[in-house]
From TrEMBL:
<dbReference type="InterPro" id="IPR003439">
    <property type="entry name" value="ABC_transporter-like_ATP-bd"/>
</dbReference>
<dbReference type="Pfam" id="PF00005">
    <property type="entry name" value="ABC_tran"/>
</dbReference>
<keyword id="KW-0129">CBS domain</keyword>
<dbReference type="Pfam" id="PF00571">
    <property type="entry name" value="CBS"/>
</dbReference>
<dbReference type="GO" id="GO:0015697">
    <property type="term" value="P:quaternary ammonium group transport"/>
</dbReference>
<dbReference type="GO" id="GO:0005524">
    <property type="term" value="F:ATP binding"/>
</dbReference>
<keyword id="KW-0067">ATP-binding</keyword>
<dbReference type="InterPro" id="IPR003593">
    <property type="entry name" value="AAA+_ATPase"/>
</dbReference>
<keyword id="KW-0813">Transport</keyword>
<feature type="domain" description="ABC transporter">
    <location>
        <begin position="2"/>
        <end position="236"/>
    </location>
</feature>
<dbReference type="GO" id="GO:0016887">
    <property type="term" value="F:ATP hydrolysis activity"/>
</dbReference>
<dbReference type="InterPro" id="IPR000644">
    <property type="entry name" value="CBS_dom"/>
</dbReference>
<dbReference type="InterPro" id="IPR027417">
    <property type="entry name" value="P-loop_NTPase"/>
</dbReference>
<comment type="similarity">
    <text>Belongs to the ABC transporter superfamily.</text>
</comment>
<protein>
    <submittedName>
        <fullName>ATP-binding cassette domain-containing protein</fullName>
    </submittedName>
</protein>
<dbReference type="InterPro" id="IPR017871">
    <property type="entry name" value="ABC_transporter-like_CS"/>
</dbReference>
<keyword id="KW-0547">Nucleotide-binding</keyword>
């Protein structure tokens, strides 16, 4: 879907991105992560030509991005950023409708789409569509920013620290929304973050950058279990790697199916990292597991945390 071939960007004689090769498949959730100044935002902005690359080729859907008009690229790619960039004198509805208006969608279709997106992001349409950005909390503004990026159902969603500056609870709930939207829509997503747990929770593929170069790329499990060098190991936190691996597994996949146990159950979708916390805080070695509808599916055994999943 998006390919970088030997791409470099040089600012004032210094490369911000150097000889970058990336292949982002359609439908894939790619997370760009790295130290501050490693070139993450520059890489993202080169995709929709907010920054023009100096060397190499960037292909979108098979064609060099210079063959597209920047406006066309930006209509086909939603873009959400930390500072949100909502228009202050426009209502929530007008902000979300920016691209559909440009595309001259009929009024009724725009209204329906705004309602649909507000519902998707858990904002009550009747209460929020007429409000102005200053009448919203920071988290609500970020939700509207994400809704705006999704409005015209873009082929690609580009996000630069979209959940930055949020409290951990709101951040976790927006992360869950994005994961759900990605699963439902099957859209290609490229997200920049410096939050390792966010990257591990969301990514199909992580691209770790340092000083404008890719140090390693692969699935979260691959980077945690087969780090290419000491930098990668240190970046993901040597002592913490086991705990981070637990965050990649779900209780449902590790539960012994068919077993039953009374007591307060945990959800099948709970990560093994959270389950570990439950084992310790409840001082138990067995936890009943239920599915989304609350039906019992089995029992998670403490000792099974370190075994491969029954099915994953
Ligand atoms: N417009 C610009 N002019 C000059 N230098 C720039 C410009 N934009 C970025 N740079 C430089 O390019 C390098 C990469 O910047 P970039 O913003 O891509 O990094 P980043 O990984 O997104 O960093 P952070 O996590 O701090 O946001 C940095 O050294 C930065 O100072």
């Amino acid at each position: 879907m998006i390919q970088f071939q030997h791409v470099s960007k040089i600012f004032h004689g210094k490369p911000a991105v150097e000889n970058l090769n990336l292949n982002i498949a359609e439908g894939e959730f790619t997370v760009l992560i790295g130290t501050s100044g490693s070139g993450k935002s520059t890489t993202l902005k080169m995709i929709n030509r907010l920054i023009e690359h100096d060397q190499g080729k960037i292909l979108f859907a098979g064609d060099e991005i210079h063959s597209f008009k920047p406006q066309e690229l930006r209509r086909r790619m939603g873009y959400a950023i930390q500072s949100i960039g909502l228009f202050p004198h426009w209502t929530v509805e007008q902000n979300i409708a920016t691209v559909p208006q440009l595309l001259k969608w009929p009024k009724a279709k725009i209204r329906d789409r705004v309602s649909e997106l507000l519902a998707l992001l858990h904002l009550d349409a009747d209460r929020f569509r007429g409000r102005y950005p200053h009448q919203l909390s920071g988290g609500q503004q970020q939700r509207v920013g994400v809704a705006r990026a999704l409005a015209a159902d873009p082929e690609v969603l580009l996000m630069d620290e979209p959940f930055g500056a949020l409290d951990p609870v709101t951040r976790a709930s927006l992360q869950a929304e994005i994961a759900r939207i990605h699963q439902l829509s099957g859209r290609t997503v490229v997200l920049v973050t410096h939050d390792i747990d966010e990257a591990l929770a969301l990514a199909d593929r992580i691209v770790l950058l340092d000083q404008g170069q890719v140090i390693q790329q692969g699935s979260p499990r691959h980077l945690l279990t087969r780090p290419a060098n000491a930098f990668v190991r240190d970046f993901f936190g040597r002592s913490d790697i086991g705990i981070k691996l637990l965050a990649l597994g779900a209780a449902g996949a590790h539960a012994r199916k068919g077993e039953r146990l009374p007591g307060k159950p945990i959800a099948a979708a709970m990560t093994l990292r959270e389950a570990l916390s439950e084992f310790v805080s409840r001082q138990t070695e067995l936890l009943p597991v239920v599915d989304e509808q609350g039906r019992p599916i089995g029992v998670l055994h403490f000792r099974d945390l370190v075994k491969p999943a029954v099915e994953e």
